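Example 3.2
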Amino acid sequence: MNDTLVVEVEVTCNVDEKDTAEHIMERLKKELSGKKHKNKEKEETHLHTIIKVVRDEDLAKQVGKYIYFDLVDYDKVRIFHVQKQMSFNIFKEEVAKEFCIPAQFQRFWVFAKRENDTCRPFRPLTRIEEAGPVGELKVVNKVHKAELKLFLEVEHGPDLCPIEPLHKVKDDMLLFFKLYDPEKEELRYAGRFFVNCTDKPSEILTSLNKLAGYDPDEEIELYEEITFEPTVMCEPVDKKLTFQESEV
């Protein structure tokens, strides 16, 4: 109270006053040290933004091992502490050094919370957003926490080297696919795929088989993962309806 700490001690065994005083002082030092650490964290939170960068590699490592429903555990991805005033384009240079992916081949997507409380990459950052400070991204995207979750899309050519991101039009959607093998009873991340909302699943089956490593004419079933905590559902996808009609 009023910057004064009052300590009341009751000694019930054979401990002398010196030992008791030393014990109290040690406790006080630990509490003061913990308080300084918390204050330092608050200061850093005020000046920095925590950016959690999710990549395909994270999904491949986690799905079927740590994650079965939803996409990723954000605490197991690369985390950056970035000054809020830093330009996002400068941050991309840091990412280039970390992952050996040139900035011009990086496309970042903002995660958005869906009605069922899951988070999915919603839209790519605009050039205007990338030219501005990192701290503004939280304001624009209405992120109230101290951290920002982003998906890093990187395309690769035949030689597996990074290439320019694929051209995206307004009605294009980025879908993520998991593959469940009923014979092996194994689940893994198969990859991602751009579709137009007017496309039908029947039109991309050959591409999906290639993604899964199957023969082009392999018969596969598609399900949409729907999560309403604590309930998880997998609804069959009608291959003859458009993605828009199926509300995927």
